[in-house]
Structures are given as C-alpha cells and as structure tokens.
Amino acid sequence: MDWWLTPDQQGQRLFEEGEFLAAAETFEDPARRGAAYFRSGDFESAASVFGRLRTPEAAYNRGNALVMLGRYEEALADFDHALLGHAGFLVGNLARSLFLGLTRGRLSLSPFGPASRRYVQQLNWMSAAFALCADAAMMTLGGSLKRKERLSARLGDVLSELYLASSVVKRFHDEGEQQADLPLMQWAMEDSLYNIQESLRSLFRNMPARPLAWLLRLLVFPTGTPFSEPNDRTASRAARLLLAPSASRDRLSAGIYVTRDRNEPVGRLELALELSVQLEAAEKRIRDAVKAGTIHGSTPLEIAAAALAQGIIDTGEHGALVELEGLRDQVIAVDAFDDYGSQHLLQKAEKSHAA
After folding, report:
1. Quick check: is 263 in a domain?
2. Cβ atoms within 10 Å, residue 170
3. Residues 109 and 198 in one domain
4. Is 190 part of any domain?
C-alpha cells in the first residue's frame, strides 16, 4: 500500500503506469521529477527542474526540453555544457585509471577492514578501468557498439563481476568480517578479479581501432596483468567450509530452504552430509583394511559387514554406515522408466500390422 512506500517509490509506480504528471508531483528526487514532467509534455517545468541541477546529465536533459519548446540557442548552450562536463569526466577518469594502474590501486580509499581492504582497492581500480573502456568504446563505435554484441557482452561481463564482487565484500563486512568466512571471500574476490581482467584483455584484443586498444591496454594495465585464478589451496579452504556443517555454511545458506526431513530431497542431502562427516574416521579404517587385504566385499554393505565382523568398526558405526549408504542411494537416484518407449513401439507395430 502507498503508505509503506517512499514518495520516490510511489512516484515510480505512477511513472510506470503512465501517470507522468502525477508522478512528477510525487517524486522528491529532482532528476526523476524532471523526467516525469518531460514525459508528461510539460517541457517548461522539466526545463526549470533540470536547470536547478548542476550536472552534465541535467544540462543535457534541459537542452532536450528547450528543444521541444523551440528555444534552440539556449538548448545549444546546455548541450555544450553537457559535452564539456562529460569530456572533463573522461579526462579525469583517464588520469584516475592510469594512477590506479601504476599503483595497482594501493593508494585508493576503502571503507572496510583490513581483511577486505586490498580487494576493495583493486575493485576501485577495475571500476575506473571499466568506466574508461566503456566511454572509449561508445565514443569510437557509437551505435554500432550495440551491433557488435561480443564487444558489448565483454563490457557486460565486467560490469556483472564488479557487481558480484562488490556484493561479496559488502556481505563480508556486514556480517562482521568473520575470520572463518575469509576463505570464501578470498576465493570469490580472486575469481571475480581474474574474470574482469580476462574480459578486459579480450576487449582490447578485439576492438576495431587497434591504436585505441593499445592505448587502453597501457592505461589500464601499465604494470602488467596482476590477477590470477584462485589457486588450489584457496579453493580447497573454501570447499572445506562447504563440505561440512559449520557456522560459515549456515551464514552462507541463510534464507535458503534447508530441512532435515528425510522425505524431502534437500533433507536427505543434509542428513547424508552430516553422516559422512561423522563417519570419516570409520570409513578411513575400512579403506585401510581393504587395502591391507584384511576384509573383502563386492558392495559397500558387504564391506561394512566384514569390517564389523573383524571388529574394525562397532555396531553403532555399522548402523550409521548402513543408513548413510541408503541415503546416498536416494540422493543420487534418478528417475527410471522401465517401459520408456515400449508403448510407442507397440502402437507403431499395431498400426503397421493393421496396414
């Protein structure tokens, strides 16, 4: 209901319903109010609202409103202001990208703690690189960038990874920067940063304007490409947190449907995981005995029974192993259709015989 929504949310709902004038009178955000006035056809009010803002985007939007009013000279002045403002942004971002590339982001600011600070600095660097490359691509390719789908897709990949990586460090920070969760955060950040780097390299290799591609490569990575995929040690530490019950695993799965009901597939999976962890020592003793030739069997249940008979495991462990094997079978089971296709073949044979 409306009283649960902010004025801007109420205005957005009206805007989406096509009630542009009502949306303009509801919005508190002046940029959105100006856009609503423009869509409603009230170009005078739109120009007035945009005129109170001091950004290149607002100057561009005011110029459009003035064009609709036939005030072309004023519109040209606003378009010039928008163009110069964006050019200034581009030059500033070029310098920022080069500076961050030379320092590899080490001097940029981070609002988070020491565990994630370095990753945030590297994200600052890659964010500036993305903005520079996107502007350069738009300036040189214009509307054809949309048709060069593989180039635009690479920019989209970079933006997606920036979003995902930002979400990772924010969640890590919001949950108190738990040291137990550090392997998960490290793996996710190293993976995203490497993917960003490779997407940018692929972009540089395939840009039509080769001198521009070389220049961007020099500006973004002046000291070389620093990121690599997460190594096996990092991946192993992260995997161990996911393969055993832990507080980290609980935090990661918060909000996800998890049950221990063995009638539910997720419940069977959870119970099998818990038993697997509990029986690690018993299963190791059994494996050692099989290797030594002490016990034999053709199925896991036969081997477990032999281990019980030899005193390698006790009755409690044997019962748990039997339960675990049953859960494993249910978890990995797939649908089976004994008569699959037979009905179709029978009908085909009947038609053939009738003919």
Report:
1. yes
2. 14
3. yes
4. yes
d(CA 233, CA 115): 18
Would you tell me the crossing angle of helices 30-40 and 43-51 to the nearest 10 degrees?
Answer: 160
Coil, strand or helix at 255: coil
Q: Are residues 133 and 202 in contact, defined by beta-carbon separation less than 8 angstroms? A: no
Both tokens of 171, joined, read 């969640």
Same domain, 227 and 137: yes
Q: Global pTM?
A: 0.69
Measuring CA to CA, how many Å separate 310 from each of 82, 279, 280, 296, 323? 84, 18, 19, 11, 20
131 three-state secondary structure: helix
Residues 292 and 233 in one domain: no
Amino acid identity, residue 149?
E
Q: Give the CA dihedral 141, 147, 149, 151, nearest 10 degrees.
A: -10
CA distances from 110 to 117, 175, 194, 280, 349 (A): 6, 17, 20, 42, 73
User: Nearest 5°: CA angle at 160, between 164 and 9?
Assistant: 80
Three-class HEC string of 144-156: HHHHCHHHHHHHH
Q: Are residues 62 and 165 in the same domain?
A: no
Q: What span, in angstroms and rounded, lies between the C-alpha atoms of 218 and 135?
A: 16
pLDDT, averaged in runs of 10, over the chain (355 residues): 77 91 92 93 93 89 92 90 76 88 91 91 95 87 79 93 96 92 95 97 92 93 94 92 84 85 88 89 93 90 92 93 90 70 65 64
Residue 48 domain boundaries: 2-89
334 CB-near residues (< 8 Å, 6+ apart): none
* Residue at 96 is within a domain: no
Note whether 112 and 212 are same-domain residues: yes
Query: Residue 83 maps to which CATH number?
Result: 1.25.40.10
Residue 119 belongs to a domain? yes
Tell me how many domains the chain contains: 3
Last residue of a domain, one of 89, 122, 140: 89
C-alpha distances (whole Å) from 74 to each of 58, 71, 78, 240, 337 are 14, 6, 6, 64, 75
What is the spatial distance between Cα 277 and Cα 149, in angstroms, rounded to a whole number?
47
Per-residue tokens: 177: 């920067």
